Structures are given as structure tokens and as C-alpha cells.
Amino acid sequence: MIRRLIPHPGLSVFLALFWLVLANSWTTGSLIVALFLGITVPLITRPWWPDRPRVARPWLLVPYALLVLWDVIVANFQVARVILFLPKDRIRSTFIAVPVDLTAPEAISILAGTITMTPGTVTADWAADGRTLLIHALHAPDPDAVRDDIKTRYEARLKRIFG
């Protein structure tokens, strides 16, 4: 019964708290509006929500996030080195097609987001068949190595997380 009334409890709580922060008020009226939004928005949008992703090993998300954080820090220094010290004619900017073995759209989105958050790379496109990401790399003297690094460093971990 409660699941029918509140199909996405996390979203409901988020919306209610977000409203209270936006309203900057904890009055009775603000609380009523927050509860109303927290219940009605998920109910109205329920038909467009996909099934919940199957996260087989959620505890592996923490080491994954730490790995991404570390990679973002390291990539900042690498990009700075390329921009500041590498002559423009030696920068090897390229597009790389990365075949994706992941099947969960959420996992693919996390992979694409991870690539985009890491300085020096950006996810430029996702093939219509959902099997390939097009990545732009600021400096990739060996595009195959970049592709292989993405697959082993990120995609393999996401496969374990999403099972």
C-alpha cells in the first residue's frame, strides 16, 4: 500500500527537503507544500520511470567513487601539463569509439559521466544501438590504450557493481 502511494521514497524525501530549502521556511504551509510535492510528483511521473536498476554489489560503489576522485585529481595535472608544456602541434586530440559491454542504462550513464568528469576526456555521443560511446580525448597519442584503460579501469568495475 505505501509503495503505491510513494513509488520512489528517495525522490519524495529529496523533493520535500529541496522545497523546504528553496522556501527557506519551516512553517506549516511550507511543510504542507513539501509533503504535497513529495507525494504527487513521483505519482504523476511514475509511468515514465524505468524499473529500478539491479545493483548487485552496492558496497563496490564507494571504492569506485574513490577511484574516480583520484583519477580526476591526476587528470587535472596531466591536462595542465599538456596545455602548459606540450607544443600545440604535438597535441594529439582525437575521437575514440569505445564498445560497451554494459547492459543497464544506469551503468552506461555512470560510465559516460565518469569519462566526462575526468579532465581531458568527454563523452561526445552514444550510439543509437547503445553499444558504443564516442569519446573525445584532448591528448591521446595511443587511442587504443585510452579505450582499453576505460574498459578495464571503469567498465569492468561497473560490470561487477551492476552484476
How would you sum up this structure, described in words?
One of its GO terms (molecular function) is monoatomic cation transmembrane transporter activity. This is Na+/H+ antiporter subunit E. The chain crosses the membrane at residues 12-44, 64-86. It is a multi-pass membrane protein. Belongs to the CPA3 antiporters (TC 2.A.63) subunit E family. There is one protein chain. The chain has 163 residues and is mainly α. The protein has 2 domains: 2-48, no CATH class; 58-162, no CATH class. It is 58% helix and 11% strand. The chain contains 6 helices and 3 strands. The chain has helices spanning 2-5, 9-23, 28-45, 61-85, 105-117, 143-162; strands spanning 94-99, 121-126, 132-137. The protein has a 3-stranded antiparallel β-sheet, covered by helices on one side. A hairpin with a 5-residue loop joins strand 2 and strand 3. Helix 2 packs antiparallel against helix 3 (28-45) and helix 5 (105-117) packs across helix 6. The two termini are 30 Å apart. The mean pLDDT is 92.
In short:
The protein is built from six helices and three strands, in the order H-H-H-H-E-H-E-E-H.
Provide the fold topology.
Blueprint: H1 2-5, H2 9-23, H3 28-45, H4 61-85, E1 94-99, H5 105-117, E2 121-126, E3 132-137, H6 143-162
Antiparallel strand pairs: 1-3, 2-3
Helix pairs in contact: 2-3, 5-6
Number of strands: 3
Strand order of the largest sheet: 1-3-2
The value of Rg in angstroms is: 21 Å
* Major sheet summary line: 3 strands, antiparallel
Distance between the termini: 30 Å
| Overall form | elongated
**What's the helix-strand series?**
HHHHEHEEH
Q: Tally the helices: what do you get?
A: 6
Strand content: 5-15%
Helix content: 55-70%
Output mean pLDDT: 92
GO molecular function: monoatomic cation transmembrane transporter activity
Keywords: Cell membrane, Membrane, Transmembrane, Transmembrane helix
Protein name: Na+/H+ antiporter subunit E
Pfam family, one: MNHE
